[in-house]
Amino acid sequence: QVQLVESGGGLVRPGGSLRLSCILSGDNLRIYDMGWYRQAPGPGTQRELVAGMEAGGRISISDSVKGRFTIARDNGKNAVWLQMNSLKPEDTAVYYCNAKSVKRTNYWGQGTQVTVSS
């Protein structure tokens, strides 16, 4: 059974940095496309892709975070990270780690809260 556990969220001032971590257990991360999604507070908000890194290494980054966020993975550690710099209040959201298998099954972590506020 694949499980994802995120960590690293918290409260940070505008302009600050956070690094989110996601550990996959129950399988080998190298075969999964990995991604970080977020869902902002409030009714009607949708979960949106922030950054993704395919098993083959191709990276996609949302325009809203390009130049500020980077994604990295270490297959040997079954881990993926999201480095977030120059954080803005609009980055406030619950961040979710996602793993997509070769059969296109989606797995989700429990989410970690990121709050950017002075």
Characteristics:
single chain; 118 residues; mainly beta; 51% strand
Total strands: the figure is 11
- Share in β-strands: over 45%
Tally of individual helices: 0
Percent helix: under 10%
Indicate the low-confidence ranges by residue numbers.
none
Rg of Cα set: 14 Å
Q: What structural class do the secondary elements suggest?
A: mainly beta
What overall geometry do the principal axes of the alpha carbons give?
globular
Q: What's the order of the H and E elements?
A: EEEEEEEEEEE
Distance between the termini: 40 Å
Task: Characterize the main sheet.
Answer: 7 strands, mixed
* pLDDT averaged residue by residue: 96
What does this structure look like?
It is a single chain. The protein has strands at residues 3-7, 10-12, 18-25, 33-39, 48-53, 59-61, 69-74, 79-84, 93-100, 106-108, 112-116. It has 118 residues and is mainly beta. The strands form 2 sheets. Strands 2, 4, 5, 6, 9, 10 and 11 form a 7-stranded mixed sheet that branches. β9 (93-100) and β10 (106-108) form a beta hairpin.
